[in-house]
């Protein structure tokens, strides 16, 4: 478990340097959106859940450790929800303006429907 957490931390650090030296898209392709990174996070969730069961962290005197383990599980699940359900983009808004358009790196099309007037 410690080795996997260390690997996770190192990969996040490498992703930060890749993003700084190249761009965000490169970091996404190499690390954030890669299959091995998803498997690593899934395996960490499984191990945190196994530790909760193995060390009986539901006992009242072990609640601080339970909260610590559950926090990691919720963070990884939150990352998965963000990755698979949400979308990413930029919304440039100049001072005094309003907008409802988002610029995304994904391909979409825009369709305006009017009543003909």
Question: What does this 3D model show about the protein?
Answer:
With 117 residues, the protein is an all-alpha fold. Helix content is 62%, strand content 0%. Helix 3 runs antiparallel to helix 4. The model has no long low-confidence stretch (mean pLDDT 91).
Q: What structural keywords apply?
A:
mainly alpha; 117 residues; elongated
Low-confidence residue ranges = none
Number of helices: 4
Total beta strand runs: 0
Reported for the largest beta sheet, the result is: none
Query: From the alpha-carbon coordinates, what is the Rg to the nearest angstrom?
Result: 20 Å
Termini gap: 64 Å
**How much beta, percentage-wise?**
under 5%
Overall pLDDT, averaged? 91
The helix-and-strand class reads mainly alpha
Shape: elongated
Order of helices and strands: HHHH
Helicity, as a percent range = 55-70%
Provide the fold topology.
Blueprint: H1 2-21, H2 24-32, H3 35-54, H4 63-85
Helix pairs in contact: 1-2, 1-3, 3-4
Brief overview:
Helices cover 62% and strands 0% of the residues.
């Amino acid at each position: 478990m410690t080795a996997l957490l260390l690997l996770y931390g190192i990969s996040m650090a490498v992703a930060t340097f890749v993003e700084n030296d190249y761009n965000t898209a490169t970091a996404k392709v190499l690390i954030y959106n890669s299959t091995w990174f998803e498997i690593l996070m899934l395996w960490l969730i499984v191990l945190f859940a196994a530790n909760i069961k193995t060390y009986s962290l539901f006992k009242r005197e072990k609640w601080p450790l339970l909260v610590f383990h559950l926090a990691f599980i919720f963070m990884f699940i939150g990352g998965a929800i963000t990755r698979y359900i949400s979308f990413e983009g930029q919304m440039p808004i100049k001072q005094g303006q309003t907008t409802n358009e988002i610029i995304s790196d994904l391909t979409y099309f825009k369709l305006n429907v009017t009543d003909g007037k």
